[in-house]
Design goal:
7% strand; three-stranded antiparallel β-sheet; mainly alpha; disordered N terminus; 3 domains
Length: 207
């Protein structure tokens, strides 16, 4: 393996410090050895062309732009995690729960303490959150705060049904197709319940 010529180190310093201003650098040969200098060669040598020097200067503008984009993306993700509507020109028009939020709902849905209605509701919220991530609906941070409160309320002995109704009303307003699905599901539940006779009671989720 050949040793690195110390002149290359000198050249790198010249390029790094003054390459942008097209510094004058000479490639000199003395006793068969090549070195670089900012002064004309005493013996054999040639002046390096500015173009060749410029091509060796590292352009960090792309790296800076990539770093700025990564920083902005991280800030938007943090805003989502904190339940804050992302700001700035890159903010999405449709605010959605983060993957962390969805994972928390999945943990909730696996709780054995939830009633059947509560478990089904939480599973529906998970599905709606994933639909939102796919661009369905027109939600804001306040909408998903209603959803989070409703999911949390499912562990309570009281208030769960009211919280479900509020969340479903929010989904109906934010996502037309989901509103239609909710309305059809209620019609089916009421129709099936009425077939039970005069002892019909509205499902817990509608009380």
């Amino acid at each position: 393996m050949q040793k690195i010529n110390s002149g290359l180190v000198v050249l790198s310093l010249f390029i790094g410090v003054t390459g942008a201003s097209h510094a004058q650098v000479w490639k000199c040969t003395t006793d068969g050895k090549t070195h670089y200098s900012d002064q004309p060669c005493a013996a054999k040598g040639e002046q390096m062309r500015p173009q060749s020097l410029q091509s060796n200067v590292i352009d960090t503008s792309a790296d800076r732009a990539a770093a700025e984009r990564a920083k902005a993306a991280a800030e938007r993700e943090q805003q989502q995690t904190n339940g804050v509507q992302p700001s700035g020109p890159a903010a999405p028009s449709n605010f959605c729960p983060s993957d962390r939020d969805i994972a928390a709902m999945e943990t909730k849905a696996s709780s054995i303490s939830l009633s059947a209605d509560a478990k089904k509701f939480v599973q529906d919220e998970i599905r709606r959150a994933r639909q939102c991530q796919k661009g369905q609906g027109n939600y804001n941070a306040s909408d998903w705060n209603v959803s989070k409160q409703a999911v949390d309320a499912q562990s309570s002995l009281t208030g769960g049904a009211d919280a479900r109704r509020r969340a479903e009303a929010m989904h109906s307003a934010a996502n037309a197709s989901e509103g239609d699905r909710i309305a059809r599901q209620r019609e089916i539940e009421e129709r099936n319940a009425k077939r039970g006779g005069l002892n019909y009671q509205a499902p817990l989720r509608d009380r």
